[in-house]
Amino acid sequence: MKRVLSGIQPSGQLTIGNYIGAMQNFVKLQHDHECFFMIVDLHAITVAQEPAALHEQSEQVAALYLAAGIDPNKAAIFMQSHVPQHAELGWLMTTISYMGELERMTQFKDKSEGKDSVGAGLFVYPALMAADILIYNADLIPVGDDQKQHLELTRDLANRFNHRFGDFFTVPQPYIPEVGARIMSLDDASKKMSKSSAVAGSLIALLDDPAVIRKKISRAKTDMEAVVKYDPINKPEISNLMSIYAHTSDLSIAEIEAKYDGQMYGPFKKDLAEQVASFIEPLQARYHEVRKSGELHDVLKSGAERAQAAAQQTLDEVKRRMGFVMPR
Ligand code: TYM
User: How far apart are CA 167 and CA 269, in angstroms?
Assistant: First the structure.
């Protein structure tokens, strides 16, 4: 059975972009793959986090995994920091990474742009992410489009290690949705929808009140042409809304185009708002049930145990190959 691994940072309110780009595929892949899904708290602290917010957001992401339909009997769900092997392999991966390749990472460039001082953790972030993946010898990595470059680096590091220390790591493949791999901001279709955005109207949070979601969709930017047609280059705003529609309903992009043929944006946006609200309401109901039930910490404990067993095996073999004296 192929192995799947992915993670989401608890660094803000999860958005519908995180769901469409990543979580929806976590749910899909769990049925016929061995899956590991983390809450990457060690990555979140590469930018300053207020401790109480980090704590709450970490539990939120874990509860949203369950609410979205990830089954803890199928997939290991765990906090990255509960499996300390990640940090240890992260260090080993840092030592085989080059400054130049880390400097080229667009996420690093974006997050450090215009800052007087930049945390070193942000710089070595991709080496830890490579460790997250390689420690399970994962085959498939479900992510959105913005993680492609990090995955390319992970593949380079896997190949570099294999070349230096003998074939060992599986070289992973990204698993990216065809439509919706990059959900854009509602107010500016040149920017991706981001959970760390300061503009509330730019994003649909999975835990937004449905009334707020309806309002945000009705105010979302569109073009002047008023034709519901999927054309991400020339009509990025409406194409983005169509991607959201397709992923929260069972209609394809072609079916949405046909449904709104000859209509203006008003009816389309109204239906989209209802569609998203009716998708989000049951998700939120399950989320609140999970938070109330107290099951979360048991799930995280057993997830971490499963993950640790697999991770320790890899780490031992990596250290042995690199020449470390192993305890006897
Ligand atoms: P993060 O927390 O920024 O995002 C989590 C996942 O959501 C996807 N995503 C999007 N997809 C479509 N449209 C958007 N607007 C959008 N915004 C975010 C991301 O691509 C991602 O898949 N570095 C990772 C976390 C990570 C990780 C890993 C992922 C750490 N270790 C190992 C995979 C494997 C990140 O910052 O994701």
Answer: 52
Dist. CA 44–CA 141, nearest whole Å: 19
Q: Give the amino acid at 110.
A: D
Q: Which domains does the chain have, with CATH numbers?
A: 3-176+294-322 (3.40.50.620), 200-288 (1.10.240.10)
Which pair of structure tokens corresponds to residue 22? 């990543």
| Minimal-distance CA residue to ligand 1 atom 36 | 9
Q: Is 79 exposed, middle or buried (0-12, 13-18, 19+ CB in 10 A)?
A: buried
- Residue 143 is encoded by which pair of tokens? 């992510």
Tokens, residue 66: 């369950």
Q: Which residues are catalytic?
A: 111, 192, 195
* Residue among 40, 65, 79 to mutate when testing ligand 1 (max atoms within 8 A of CB): 40
The answer on pLDDT for 196 being more than 90 is no
Q: Summarize pLDDT for 60-99 with one digit per residue, the tens.
A: 999 999 999 999 999 999 999 999 999 999 999 999 999 9
Confidence of residue 179 (pLDDT cuts 50, 70, 90): confident
Question: Do residues 28 and 11 lie in contact, with contact meaning Cβ atoms separated by under 8 Å?
Answer: no
Helix 120-134 vs helix 148-165: crossing angle, to nearest 10 = 70
Taking the C-alpha atoms of residue 185 and residue 191, their distance in angstroms, rounded to an integer, is 6
pTM attached to this predicted model:
0.96
The sign one gets for the Cα dihedral 298, 12, 142, 214 is: positive
User: 209 with 143: CB under 8 angstroms?
Assistant: no
